[in-house]
Design goal:
- By secondary structure, the chain is mostly helical.
- It has one domain: Four Helix Bundle (Hemerythrin (Met), subunit A) (Up-down Bundle), CATH 1.20.120.80.
- The chain is built from 8 helices and 2 strands.
- The protein has a two-stranded antiparallel sheet with strand order 1-2.
- The radius of gyration is 22 Å and the shape is flat.
- The termini are far apart.
């Protein structure tokens, strides 16, 4: 248990307590606090996107394309509904598990497993983005879907699909880049020596790994909602 901090009595003590965030952010690094604030703002953005998608889909008079048919992938000559999307979801959820393990080993200051788990997480994230590029290519080239038109039904389908999945894919791509940077810093021992530079943090602390974990878990959680709303509805 940490020692209690002596507070000034009266109203001044209340003001001092709240202004210094002694209870809410005691010993919490600024990077982690700022990541929570960023994720909160991002939640509003993704929430607006999904609400906009639901509004467009329920208000359009043109039939909406059937996701099971649009996103089907042939396997042994037979179209399998949502096969690619199921694989993408499995890959991203698996990466969330490897990220959680990287955070665990990071706080145990075990550099080697932390490094490799970050590399695996980044690889799985890059694999997800690659499959998303394949999905976009199939829709644009083979199906003729555009942000302003859609030969399979409602024209709004293309605009909403490319906006929502593209915004999420950008988050995953940025996360992969920062995971690679973090892995390199762990490998070189920058987090142990507090080497001056980008995303280093305090000496002998692996807080940046946990901060990256918060971002990555958020990206995975958002995909669960996109999967449920866009592909299963």
């Amino acid at each position: 248990m940490a020692e209690s901090v002596a507070l000034t009595p009266g109203v001044k003590g209340v003001v001092d307590d709240w202004s210094s965030d002694q209870r809410a952010f005691k010993n919490v690094p600024w990077g982690k606090a700022m990541m929570w604030i960023f994720l909160l703002s991002d939640t509003f953005i993704f929430g607006c996107f999904l609400v906009g998608y639901m509004t467009v889909r329920m208000s359009t008079t043109t039939p909406w394309p059937n996701p099971s048919e649009v996103f089907a992938l042939e396997f042994l000559g037979t179209p399998v509904p949502l096969l690619l999307i199921a694989i993408m979801t499995f890959v991203l959820i698996t990466s969330s598990g490897t990220m959680a393990m990287a955070v665990k080993f990071g706080y145990e200051k075990r550099k080697v497993p932390t490094f490799w788990l970050l590399v695996v997480t980044a690889f799985l994230g890059a694999t997800f983005v690659g499959m998303q590029v394949f999905e976009w290519t199939k829709l644009i080239v083979d199906e003729g879907v555009r942000p302003w038109s859609n030969p399979m039904g409602a024209p709004q389908f293309g605009a909403v699909f490319f906006m929502v999945t593209g915004f999420h894919g950008t988050h995953v791509s940025i996360g992969v880049i920062f995971l690679v940077i973090t892995a390199i810093k762990v490998r070189r021992g920058d987090l142990d020596k507090e080497t001056p530079g980008f995303m280093t943090g305090r000496s002998n602390r692996y807080e940046i790994v946990e901060t990256m974990g918060l971002y990555w878990h958020f990206v995975d959680l958002v995909w669960v909602f996109i999967f449920a709303f866009f592909y299963l509805w």
